[in-house]
Amino acid sequence: QVHLVESGGGSVQVGGSLRLSCAASVDIFSSSCVGWFRQTGRRREGVAVIDHIGGPHYANSVKGRFTISKDSAKNTLNLQMNSLKPEDTGVYYCAAGGRSGRCWSEVYYADWGQGTQVTVSS
User: Fold this and answer.
1) According to the model, what pLDDT value does residue 31 have?
2) Distance between CA 78 and CA 86 in Å, rounded?
3) What share of the chain is helix, strand, coil (3-state, %, to 5)?
4) Which residues pair with 117 in a beta bridge?
């Protein structure tokens, strides 16, 4: 089983930046999708994903502000978040093992981290 551990969450003011990291216990980049999702209340939405055959891809709400990247040597997935807005507040989860070509569909992801809280205040 893949073990994912997120870090880097916290509280910032509007316009600030945070960098999230997700450390994986094994290679998660070779054969499937990986991504960052966020949950606000009961709603969970995709933020940024990488398909092993292409990407990255971003939700419209974060394009130009967020950057997803991977460090294959360290089995680490990162999310650089700039120009943060109050609506970016939520619990951020990294996910791995998604189905290639269906990276936005969370139902296909086999492995999830425990989540890290991001709070943006005005």
Assistant:
1) 77
2) 21
3) 5, 55, 40
4) 91
Structure tokens at 122: 């005005």
On the CB side of 9, CA atoms within 13 Å amount to 20
Which residues of the chain have a pLDDT value below 70? none
Q: Do 6 and 92 contact (CB within 8 A), yes or no? A: yes
Say if CB 1 and CB 71 are below 8 A apart.
no
Q: Which residue has the tokens 């073990």?
A: 3
Task: State the DSSP H helix or E strand holding residue 4, giving kind and residue range, or none if neither.
Answer: strand 4-7
* pLDDT at residue number 54: 82
Interatomic CA distance for residues 45 and 43, integer angstroms: 7
- At 38, which amino acid appears? R
Q: Name the one residue in this structure whose structure tokens are 């990291």.
A: 21
DSSP for 74-106 reads TTEEEEEE-S--GGG-EEEEEEEEEPTT-TT-G
Helix (H, G, I), strand (E, B) or coil at 66: strand
Residue whose entry in the numeric block shows the structure tokens 């999708």: 33
